[in-house]
UniProtKB/TrEMBL annotation, chains A, B:
This is Phosphoglycolate phosphatase. It comes from Hibiscus sabdariffa. PANTHER family: 4-NITROPHENYLPHOSPHATASE-RELATED, PHOSPHOGLYCOLATE PHOSPHATASE 2. InterPro entries: HAD-like_sf, HAD-SF_hydro_IIA, HAD_sf, PGP_euk. It catalyses: 2-phosphoglycolate + H2O = glycolate + phosphate.
Length: 310, 310
């Protein structure tokens, strides 16, 4: 497995992408890892010039991988979203944190006779099932309620060996109690977080609580810290390296968030490109309080087309 | 205000309560602070000998105060619970974390034209209203749902200047989103936690997620830490001292939890008595990993009657 020493250039100020360094970047990289929201699309709208840019990169033999912390969809559901937006991306090119949770269990030889309790959406349940695991909870427990009475015993499945927590728009006390009991009372039960993003662009207009909210709730009730499988944890990267046999020094992570995408790329030793088409503005990047500097930055992914004269 | 230096005896091993030291304790103390659950009652059942013990302490001129981290009830609702169990305890003798939240705002001169958003139960809403504040949320928002659509704007009241978070059996995404937006977007908005107990005895049979669960969720989505007003924070103690003009060195905190009750008493410089009628067993107390030693311990509060030959 590839070493994951941080990129030594990460402390220098980011360089604006130009014709010259864009060419150098392309020549030095075999694979581009893209974050999706704020990079490929915003909400349900494709960002300008994406189809042409992806096409150009493919025509130059570059491998493309789409890495997202959003766990509400499975890879199949993501592939459909790409298709709806007119992009041809295969399921194998998509790495969502829902898939990462399933792969974490697979890689760590989670016993198939054990079950997984899900606080989160359909995406996690689908990925767990596709990987051959039995998933409980998730959308199934949306309407359930704990009975608040003396002498009430809340029954939980003693075969649950892992609780996976992700963004859950239908969070309720029943799910929190179920997950808490499994982690506190089932010996050796794992606590896995898809990611810990505090907020995310659930709508085009506002930031809403992200998976970090549900994960924080379970930290609070269990006094345990989770294993995080999404960005900026390098679990997905290590999995990718193993699968595609790539070197991180010949990869470039492209993202709109400094503390997840760029940090994720740097943690893994990749080159990094920040695009300003999402949550990060130029003034956030330049602020003295910001300690995370990508190798390069540009307004949007398709700038690369103009810079290379394609 | 009284100094709150830790009790210097707190690192010595706890002494079993005996006739001799029980008499010394009584002579050296003017007020007893009692935790309720696991000390006075367990769920809906009074613990043996409580009425006679409280009567004896009152007859000796001791002041009694009941301090609970449970925020689901207001002080009026607590006084009713005491009455139902056959105990005569006045509202003024009760300090719940719901009351503490209201008093924190009062003491810190929270502007009365500002509003308070509540993630928690009726108890918090009642105490805030009794203290003259406008409370939003709480039981009112149990059935509300956020609309997960592009271009959906979640409207929150810009006059909310504090979010109070306590145990909420009806937690949902709407409340988490409302509280998160107030804290993240309303300038200077306070984040107040009634307490951070990870779990509590909501039924006689099991531990269920406590306020620490909901507080953890808001920490996760806001990347902020709360002001805690319940045990083991000394806010309630400082308020008590100011109100009753007592000296902490002449107070004894009686509780069943090492990390809230006994730590709370020690943080404030009180004498401390652990009772084994709640969550702490003798083996937890004696375990080398336990760093919190009360001054005294005994099985249950009423042991004091026998020891004093009353």
């Amino acid at each position: 497995m590839e070493s994951t020493t941080p990129n030594p250039t990460s402390t220098a100020a980011a360089e604006l992408l130009t014709g010259a360094n864009a060419k150098l970047l392309l020549d030095s990289v075999d694979a581009f890892l893209f974050d999706c929201d704020g990079v490929i699309w915003k909400g349900d709208k494709l960002i300008d010039g994406i189809p042409e840019t992806l096409e150009m990169l493919r025509s130059k033999g570059k491998k493309l991988v789409f890495v997202t912390n959003n766990s509400t969809k499975s890879r199949i559901q993501y592939a459909n979203k790409f298709r709806t937006l007119g992009l041809s991306v295969s399921q194998d090119e998509i790495f969502s944190s829902s898939f990462a949770a399933a792969m974490y269990l697979k890689v760590n030889q989670f016993p198939p006779q054990k079950k997984v309790y899900v606080i989160g959406g359909e995406g996690i349940v689908q990925e767990l099932q596709l990987a051959g695991f039995t998933a409980l909870g998730g959308p199934e427990d949306v309407e359930k309620r704990a009975q608040w009475k003396s002498n009430c015993l809340f029954e939980h499945d003693k075969d649950v060996g892992a609780v996976v927590v992700g963004l859950d728009p239908d969070i309720n006390y029943y799910k929190l109690q179920y997950g808490t009991l499994c982690i506190r009372e089932n010996p050796g039960c794992l606590f896995i977080a898809t990611n810990r993003d505090s907020v995310g662009h659930m709508t085009d207009l506002q930031e809403w609580p992200g998976a970090g909210c549900m994960v924080g709730a379970i930290c609070g009730s269990t006094e345990r810290e989770p294993v995080v499988v999404g960005k900026p944890s390098t679990f997905m990267m290590e999995f990718l390296l193993q699968k595609f046999n790539l070197s991180t020094s010949r990869m470039c992570m492209v993202g709109d968030r400094l503390d997840t995408d760029i940090l994720f790329g740097q943690n893994a030793g990749c080159k990094t490109l920040l695009v300003l088409s999402g949550v990060t503005t130029r003034s956030i990047l330049d602020d003295p309080s910001n300690k995370i500097q990508p190798d390069y930055y540009t307004n949007k992914v398709s700038d690369i087309l103009g810079l290379l004269g394609e």
